[in-house]
Amino acid sequence: MIITMGKYEYLILGPQGSGKGTQAQALANLLRIPHISTGDIFRQLAGQQSEFGQELDKILKTGQLVPDDITNKLVANRLAESDTNSGFVLDGFPRNMKQAEFLAKIKPDVLAIYLELSDEEAVKRISGRRVCPNCQAVYHLQYNPPRVDEVCNIDGAHLLQRTDDTKEAVLVRLANFHQQTEPLLDFYHQRGKLKRIDGAPPIDVVTANLRAILGL
Ligand code: ADP
């Protein structure tokens, strides 16, 4: 008898600092499926010396969104790779209605998970966020500190603050979230494809709640 596994197709929505990346990675590890973060992909491309890289770097630093045609194409190409055959966790995409409509055409069954967090808490979390420039692991000075001060647990690199984690850029990104991304909650709710979860508790508690809500 052949047992076929259903696909695990998820996307995580939430304001900056809600723990999208952390929870997406936990879910991806658990299910052995790829974690696809458009932010990580763009940050990597922005580090390249090309004209495109420099253009991206400017967009990211100010907290603006990368144009939809570029973003949609990049995601479509990534989702066409064979490692997504048994599923994926999208993090940071879609971020507006155009992107959601595009995704619905290529992946109509994706389940959206909304991590809720107040703006006040989001700003607090972002100011303490540190990332590993090598492996992209994410820490928080207070909530999820590395074992050795300012040093990545995984590869020992010196942790950095993201260039878009300035107060100014965070406010732009939060405003974008409310204007452009929040309407997606209705979009997925109307399709019966939305699960909401409180992003305020500690990381492990959110992961456990997430597993429970997804029946994993
Ligand atoms: P955060 O959720 O904390 O804003 P991300 O790492 O998801 O961080 O994204 C960082 C930046 O990458 C965004 O501010 C934006 O410039 C760009 N970006 C990421 N995802 C998208 C997307 N889906 N559409 C357009 N731009 C994006």
Question: Mind telling me the CATH superfamily name of the domain at 8-119 and 180-214?
Answer: P-loop containing nucleotide triphosphate hydrolases
Helix content: 40-55%
Shape label: globular
Return the CATH topology of the domain at 8-119 and 180-214: Rossmann fold
Named once each, the bound ligands are: adenosine-5'-diphosphate
Rg on CA atoms, Å: 17 Å
Q: What is the CATH top level name of the domain at 8-119 and 180-214? A: Alpha Beta
CATH architecture of the domain at 8-119 and 180-214: 3-Layer(aba) Sandwich
Strand order of the largest sheet: 2-3-1-4-7
What structural class do helix, strand and pairing data support? alpha/beta
- For the residues shown, what is the average pLDDT? 94
Poorly predicted regions are: none
Q: How many DSSP E strands?
A: 7
Number of helices: 9
Strand fraction: 5-15%
The sequence of SSEs as H and E is EHEHHHEHEHEEHHEH
Taking the sheet with the most strands, its summary is: 5 strands, parallel
Structure at a glance:
The protein is 46% helix and 14% strand.
Q: How do the strands and helices of this protein lay out in sequence?
A:
Elements: E1 8-13, H1 20-31, E2 35-37, H2 38-46, H3 51-62, H4 68-79, E3 87-91, H5 97-106, E4 111-116, H6 119-127, E5 129-131, E6 138-140, H7 167-181, H8 183-190, E7 194-198, H9 203-214
Helix pairs in contact: 1-9, 2-3, 4-5, 6-7
The structure holds adenosine-5'-diphosphate.
Adenosine-5'-diphosphate binds next to helix 2 and helix 3.
